[in-house]
Amino acid sequence: MASCTCPYDWGGWCKHQVAAALTVLHHASDIPQRPPLDDLLKQLAPSQREPLIYYLVDQEPHLLELIESFVREPDEALLCSSSSNLSPPDIRSYRGRLQDLLEDTLREVSQGYVEEDILTEPLLDLLAEVSPYLEMGEFQAASQLLETITQEYVEAYDELANLGSESPNFERSLDELWVEVVLFLGTELSPTIQSELKLWSSYFDEGLGLTNAALRQISRHSSNESVD
Q: What angle do the packed helices 168-185 and 120-128 form, to 10 degrees?
């Protein structure tokens, strides 16, 4: 997920994150690409690798704990490292959990069992499952999860709103994740999803303002490329 070290803490993206995202969208070719770690290590002679470890630990002392763990149980450390590759999202299971959550919320609120907000926190927990895919650059997988959670929320929205149980906090967080996917996928985002996003936005009081702004940028960018 996008993050920044500036002191802005009023929700949504700060101006630095927006500027960085727009740079990725319009000037992706100008952004230097780091070579993979394997390629970097191949440039070192075997005699240089031990001094590199000492240097890294000197710069980042917390790495010593990782080295100790590796020395104690190298096989387990390698297994954990290889497991960083994410499995494709289980959309059917994800949709089922969403539907159960929304149905339970509607039932409990309509029957007067609860008065407090019982929806936002579990919705945000489900939304958090998108973050690992974003962090690993798996934007298509993230898009599938976001499409699922948005679609299910929209379908239940009228009933939720009638009961006063809609979740503006969730909607803002959803918008932030969608805009990240939209900006990084750009024209690779399917036209169907683009159309659905514009439609879904009309359902929410909060809307998907950042996402729609990103979609407009993509549209203008595509038009300019066509003219060129």
A: 20
Residue spans of the domains in the chain: they are: 45-82, 88-227
208, 210, 214, 220 alpha-carbon torsion, rounded to 10°: 90
pLDDT tens digits for range 36-94: 777 788 888 888 888 888 998 899 888 888 888 878 876 665 555 544 567 889 999 99
User: Which residue in this structure is represented by tokens 């390629």?
Assistant: 39
Contact partners, residue 16, CB within 8 Å, separation at least 6:
4, 6
Contact present, 183 and 17 (Cβ < 8 Å): no
Around 67, how many Cα atoms within 13 Å sit in the side-chain half-sphere? Answer: 11
Against a cut of 0.70, is the pTM above it?
no
- The token pair that represents 3 in the structure block: 């993050």
Alpha carbon of 210 to those of 18, 38, 60, 156: distances in Å?
A: 9, 37, 37, 22
Tokens of 77: 């450390």
DSSP 142-162: HHHHHHHHHHHHHHHHHHHHH
Compute the half-sphere exposure of residue 139: CA atoms within 13 Å on the CB side of its CA: 16
Q: Which residue has the higher pLDDT, 44 or 128?
A: 128
CB 136 within 8 A of CB 82: no
> Contact at 8 Å (CB) between 110 and 163?
yes
pLDDT at 83: 43
